[in-house]
Fold each of these.
Amino acid sequence: MNQLKHYTAIANELQQFDPEKFELLEEGINIIVHKLKFIQIENRPIVEIVDFSRPAIDPSYLEEISEIAGAQNNPLVKESENAEILIFINESPSFLSSLPELLNNQYSDYKAANNNNVFIVHKPEFGKNKEDFLLDTEIFAEIIQSKYFVYGHEGDHWIKFSL
């Protein structure tokens, strides 16, 4: 796993100013990491994340939480059309109605679109509040490694889209 700069910064701050929240964060992240530690990197799904939020989320934040959540983040093998999971981040309710056309026009050659592995994260302020690092990671874990994680965020913060 690459350097966890966002987690480390948040954890250091919490450890100093709110040790109780630090313990919750550390425990939650450790549970995710522990459950996934025996899944080899090459056996993890390739995930494409399309961020339509404004302002855009820091791409390194998205990469970090997706990697913790069990995605394969290897730029040498990551070809977008081979993405097994496609995640759109957009909190606008109208986005759902425009998604079929978007998939047809721009993502029809994607493995994820052809296999109905398309998800929408619609949680307000997703990726924008450091206090939500664990929640954001749990959301991705439910999507990326659904066999291992059920936190109950489906429907409230994300949905699976089927054509």
Note: Residues 67 and 73 are 6 Å apart (CA to CA).
Amino acid sequence: MGFLAWLGYGESKTYYHTIAELETLKGSAVSQRMRIGGTVAVGSIRHLSGRVDFVLEGEGKTLPVSYIGTDPLPDTFVDKSQALVEGRPGPEGRFVAEVVQAKCASKYEAAPGGKGSSAPSPTEKSGM
């Protein structure tokens, strides 16, 4: 029974790799389940029958991805969002993802040219 638990654990492990690391993987590491993070390339999201294709960018490299999962994509999955895909490398350099997680990076950035607060500073006077 302990052997089955150990075997199940070994098959469920998921390693994180960067897009640049993918081309350096060799042997059985290439076919293992893994997670890859990157930024969704502008204009790359294509909704097709049974899958969604897009491109992740990171470290000056790109990775074409096909999402074949059954869960709907997150609302935050848009151009320029940070995405984490989980799956396996597929044929012809395309990553086949079964899970996609995304967050919109711009949602957490300060507004351009803004000071971060619209409240008057303590040194401003009210004119009364």
Note: Residues 13-106 form a domain with the OB fold (Dihydrolipoamide Acetyltransferase, E2P) fold (CATH 2.40.50.140).
